[in-house]
Every structure is written in C-alpha cells, then in structure tokens.
Amino acid sequence: MIESAPQTEKNHLAISYAKLSVLASLISSNYAYFCSGCRMNIRISWQYGMPRFWTIPMKLDRITLVGMVAMTAVSTDLYLSGIPLIVAEFNATEADGQLTLGIFMLGISLGQLVYGPLSDFYGRKPVLYVGLIAYIIASFGCAVALSMEHLLLARLLQGLAAASGPVLARAIVTDVYQARDAARVMATLATSMALIPCIAPVFGSWMLYWFDWRVQFFALMLVGLLVLLCATSLPESRPRQAGERLSFGKITRQFGLSLRHPIFMGYCLIGGAQSGALFSWISMSSFVVIDQLGVPPVYFGYTFAVVVCGYLFGALASSRMVMRLGMDQVIMIGLLFGIASALLMLVLAILSLHSLAWVLISACGIFFSTGMILSNAQVAAISVFPQSAGQASSIFGCIQTGLAAIVGSLASQWYDQTLMPLAIALTAMLALATLGVLKIRALKSV
C-alpha cells in the first residue's frame, strides 16, 4: 500500500510519475506547431483543386488544433496525481501504476500507424471523428474500471484513440502550409505546449480535493467531447478523391517506399535520436539530481523546469530562424548545440565533477537542441511525401516515439550511481543524429 511506503520511496514514486508525464507531454509538444502563426488569410498551395486562399476562423480553429495535439499530454498529466489512489483502490503494485502510463504510450505508438494512411484515403476529418469518439468511449471505460486489468485495457484503447490528434494535425499542417511556414508554425506552438507538464497535474490535483480519481477520467471525456465539437468547424484539408479505392497493398507499398527513402529515413533518424537524448535525461534526471547532486526531492521540480525552458527557447529560436535560414541549416545549428552539450556531460562524467550548475547547463543544451531540431525534422520528413502526408506522419511519429522510449528505458536501467551512463546515452544519440544529418547533406549535394 502507498501509505505504508517509506518517505524516500514515496518521493521517488512521485518523481517517476512526473518524469513519465513530462515524457509524454514533450512527445506531444513536438507536434504542437499546428495552429500558431496563422493569419486571417493564409496563402497556401493546394494540391486538390481548392481555393488559393483559406480564411481561417481564428479562435475556434486554433483551439481545435491545440486540443488535437494536446490530447496525449493531457491524458497522462491530468490523472497523474490519482495514480497512488488507483494503486490503493485496486490493491495493485507501484509497477502497475506506472504501467497505466506505459501502456498508454504503447497505444500512441501503434495508433499512429493507422490514422495516417486512413486519412490519406478517407480524408482528415472523418478519421479524426472516429478517433475522437473512440477516445471519449475509452475515457469512459477508464472512469468506470472495476479492476486494474480493466483500467489497463481501457488505457491501451485510449492511447490508440488519442494518437489520432497529433497525427492528423501534422498531416493537416502539411496539407495547408509550405515547408518553411509549417516548420515555423510547429516551432512556435511547441513553446506553449511545453507548459502542459506544469499545468495539467495542478488541475488534476485540485479535482482530488473534492472527488476521487475517476473524475479525472470523466474530465478527459469532456476534453474529447469539446475537441470533437470544435472539430466540426475545421475545413477538410484533404477531401476524399473520386475513384480512389482503399487498398492494403497500396498502403504497404507506400510504407515500403517511405522506409526505403534515404532522405525521409535520415530525417526520421534525426528526430528519433534527438528524442532519445531528451528522454535519456528524463528517465535518469531524478537519480542524477537527487542521489548524486544532493538536491532535496521537494526542489527537484524546479531543476526540471529550468531544463524544460531550454526546449522552449530552442523552439522559439527555430521559429525565428527557419524562414531566413531554412530547415536544414537550423537543424545543423541545433545539432552543434547538442554535440557541445553531450560532450560537456561526458567530460563531467570522466572527471567525476558533480556540479549541479554544469549538469543543468548540459541538460538545458540538449533540450535547446531538441527544440530547434524536432520541428524542422518532422516537417522536412513529411514534405518528402506530400501526397501521402498522413502515412508519412504516422511513420515518423512511430519511429520517434519508439526509439525515444527504448533509449530512455535502457538508459535508466544502466544507471550505476555515476554520470557515465547518461553521458554515454547522450553522446550516442547525438552521434546518431549527426549521421542522419551527414547522410542527408551527402544525398542532397549529389
């Protein structure tokens, strides 16, 4: 039972929940460029015979797209404070409580592979409606769960459904914006989405003052319903084409084409490697900051907030630079910051210098680098296949999420009470990102 656990174990349990929450939120924040930077009349290049200008009802569409990209983050952060209560009510273990987060992330990773190809055929809005309705139903299933097994199944279905939001939002932006504009919009919204790890848990905690943990999932039902109602105002950016037929063979051929395309896979490699570096810090930060550097658990959140600011400023810098320098050049600049930050952590590990300031500077540099790179890598990858943006978005998201989760998990398992496992993980991921950049530059120079 949670109540009988030693205080140290309680602190680490709460921190582990917080880290997983931020991990999920930052995955979503990489998608959160979709609605910022809009103008009342946006000049766009339509591929399907649509008007040259699209007048956007600013506030409602902006709220809708923000809601779509925030679904995955809110679905983890809002119920975070209720996990100990869930464990206590079902007489489960702490590992079961953490599994409610992990199985949700598994659903997101798998769900991304479904919605993109379907939306390329049926259109963005019909597939979005299906995903949102499924999300509402799954959230209700979580709220009325009678056992931990029931809750885990509902959370898996909720993750599968929640994946529709960011995947389709990415595809919509690629439909509407040209490459550099899309990268700017992505980077701008990423700054605001980085605030979700701070806001959503607070609202979830307030709910527990008056209600139990089930109300948090009823609140997620309400979020899904509001996004669904607002989505009716979104214009269809890719209507179904007359005469097209859904073919499993065509879908698999397109997957194969994407996976064999060296430039597309290069950008996927960059995005996955940067996410892997970011999640290496997320998974090991409490051990490093609390156990090695001696920061009290009550102050751990402040150190994490400082590091997350690096991501915010990196995304902001990207939004300011991409229109002038281009996506590849911004990726290169961000990569240089990341390499320098990883090498700094490696030096600290080799010399056994346990300095809180220098460790946080290195981590901030990694997050700054990720903020600069991810938005541009996403748009550059999806732009390779503009006619099948949904499917390209699905593949990129699956690779990014999968690689990040694997590397983050391995890094935490390798922890040996020193900075070395973290430094090795960061250096390896930046080396992988460098290989992706060099590969793309070599291919484009031919």
Give a description of the structure.
There is one protein chain. The chain has 446 residues and is an all-alpha fold. The chain folds into two domains: 2-238, Growth Hormone, Chain: A; 255-445, MFS general substrate transporter like domains (Growth Hormone, Chain: A, Up-down Bundle), CATH 1.20.1250.20. 79% of the residues lie in helices and 1% in strands. The protein contains 17 helices and two strands. It has helices at 7-29, 58-77, 83-89, 94-122, 124-143, 148-162, 164-176, 179-193, 196-210, 214-231, 248-260, 262-292, 297-325, 327-351, 356-382, 389-413, 420-445; strands at residues 41-43, 53-55. Strands 1-2 form a two-stranded antiparallel sheet. Helix 3 packs across helix 4 and helix 4 (94-122) runs parallel beside helix 7 (164-176). The protein starts with 6 loop residues before the first helix and ends with a helix.
Short recap of the structure:
This protein has 446 residues and is mainly α.
What's the topology here?
Blueprint: H1 7-29, E1 41-43, E2 53-55, H2 58-77, H3 83-89, H4 94-122, H5 124-143, H6 148-162, H7 164-176, H8 179-193, H9 196-210, H10 214-231, H11 248-260, H12 262-292, H13 297-325, H14 327-351, H15 356-382, H16 389-413, H17 420-445
Antiparallel strand pairs: 1-2
